[in-house]
Amino acid sequence: MAVTESAVVPSEAPGEAEGARNGASTETEGARAAHEGILRRQSARESAARTYARALPIVPVRARGLTIEGADGRRYLDCLSGAGTLALGHNHPVVLEAIRKVLDSGAPLHVLDLATPVKDAFTTELFRTLPPRFAGRARIQFCGPAGTDAVEAAFKLVRAATGRTGLLAFTGAYHGMTAGALEASGGATDVRVARLPYPQDYRCPFGVGGEHGAELGARWTESLLDDTKSGVPTPAGMILEPVQGEGGVIPAPDTWTRRMREITAARSIPLIADEVQTGVGRTGAFWAVEHSGITPDVMVLSKAIGGSLPLAVVVYRDDLDVWEPGAHAGTFRGNQLAMAAGTATLAYVRENGLAHRAATVGARMLTELRSLAAEFPLIGDVRGRGLMIGLECVDPEAPPASTPDGPRPAAPEVAAAVQRECLRRGLIVELGGRRSSVVRLLPPLTISDEQTTAVLDRLADAVRAVAREDRRPGRDGTRGADRPR
User: What b/e string do you get for 234-244 counting C-beta neighbours within 10 Å, with b at 16 or more?
Assistant: First the structure.
């Protein structure tokens, strides 16, 4: 029988074992103290706006692939992946080598928008991956380093190109945290954006779901645009996510996406595809618009295109290129390290068929998670595309929110409990969706079959633990989920 490294136990002389244990204990206590000290200082010094640090009180010190090691010595399987940024996981060798090559070459690291060999290689590789009909007439704008910067640039572009100002966006959308991007996102309050229904089966805005629900949404869009008394003049553009991420991991039906393309094209409304999170193989195609076969007018790209470093671009149809010199700029639009890391990532995903891999692994995960949902009614719905997966948590004992056979109310406290139980088992997951009731999985595209099994096992165990707690009555007769946690 083969002996693994972990199975090898060194012999110890009398007295050595206790000393070794004491030394290990002291080292562990020191690591834990350092971990807790860093968290205390973060809480005291950083903005109240911090998010992930609240639900995930870990201090990463090392990472490779799917695995993160904390300052306290604990290891975690990371299914957050930098909110989808890490297509190849943490510190992939091809990314590190690309960064080292630039650092060792003596090339400038900051060049504004000057041409460089590194930038030329990035642009060439990016265009190689784009849908051919789109790439053939495309122009690229390097903007600020975040996805929200690219969204702002896209809005500015279509307004300049059309001479119009209004925008069409969708319920549940998320496009970033700057003012214009927030106006087009689902939580907006004071807007210049007309809001359209985004199709979904589980909580269909028309109460029917399926193809009929999607068609009703398309007809509503047409009516809004063609009715001279709708209050919505012809807009500068429409922005949509092929899969809503923050909205709750809701994939748009391909037929509906094609209808949106037809509706906008017939009315000369530029269509903006927000592929910040869905791009670079995440959904099982290199770009999520490829599932429907549409050619958008504008694509907004960030996250994975920088190979873990900050990078964002807008790619658009050449006849929209009406910018005057300097009409849109950004000091950090020429990040050479990000472009090198991005080139390596794009090429690796393309050459190794990782989009197809994401489709295969994602289909397996969806199948097993739907079996889990059939066993535990606190999971109301399992959905996703490729390795962009969500489990919507509901209150299984509450009556349906609308029709007798409709969905039960969202249960954010249950989703938070699942996230906590996952973390206890060394699994990092994100929450999103309406009322933060959706447990989200965004593992790297390089996840192995064995790691997939480990993720599914830990998540299933976490769900079982929450289900047991919910069934346990409290002293006041309430169920566990109703008690403060």
Answer: ebbbbbbbbbb
